[in-house]
Amino acid sequence: MNDSQEIAVECEGLGRTYTSRSALGKKQQTEALDGLSLSIPKGIVFGVLGPNGAGKTTLVRILSTLLTPTRGYARIAGYDVVKQAREVRRHIGQVLGGDR
After folding, report:
1. Kindly report the CA angle at 69 between 65 and 90, in degrees rounded to 5?
2. What does the alpha-carbon distance between residue 94 and residue 66 come to, in Å, rounded to a whole number?
3. What is the predicted pLDDT for the residue at 5?
4. pLDDT tens-digit profile of 42-71?
5. Which has the closest alpha carbon to 42: 11, 18, 78?
6. N or C end of the chain: which has fewer CB within 10 A?
7. Is the dihedral of CA 71, 72, 75, 78 positive or negative?
8. Which residues lie closer than 8 Å to 43 by C-beta, 6 or more apart?
9. Which DSSP string do the residues of 76-91 spell out, in sequence order?
């Protein structure tokens, strides 16, 4: 472990913007996550609730290193989800539901 042993999950200004093209070829941007900041101490059970399109799945994908944020940062057990993805994966477990 490193210096942030007491914080399990930390996000600051976390955001993700998706860019797509319309049928007419026009660029469209969608904010899936906009400036999320949170700190979850080790040993706490934390739930994420919200309506469809609120960014819940995007958050989980970023925290599990499956998606990179477009702004801000996130750390798991003190490890950066982008720069230290291998270490993050050693400290997490994930079970996906739904279609897969």
Report:
1. 20
2. 11
3. 54
4. 999 999 999 998 999 999 999 999 999 999
5. 78
6. C
7. positive
8. 8
9. ETTEETTTTHHHHHHT
5, 66 Cβ separation under 8 angstroms: no
> How far from the centroid of its chain's Cα atoms is residue 32's Cα?
11
Please report where in the chains the tokens 């899936």 appear, as a residue. Answer: 32
What does the DSSP assignment read for 35-75?
A: EEEEEEETT--------TTSSHHHHHHHHTTSS--SEEEEE
Residue with tokens 């210096």: 3
Measure the CA–CA gap between 11 and 52, rounded to whole angstroms.
Answer: 21
Q: Contact, 26 vs 65, CB < 8 A?
A: no
- pLDDT for 4 equals 45
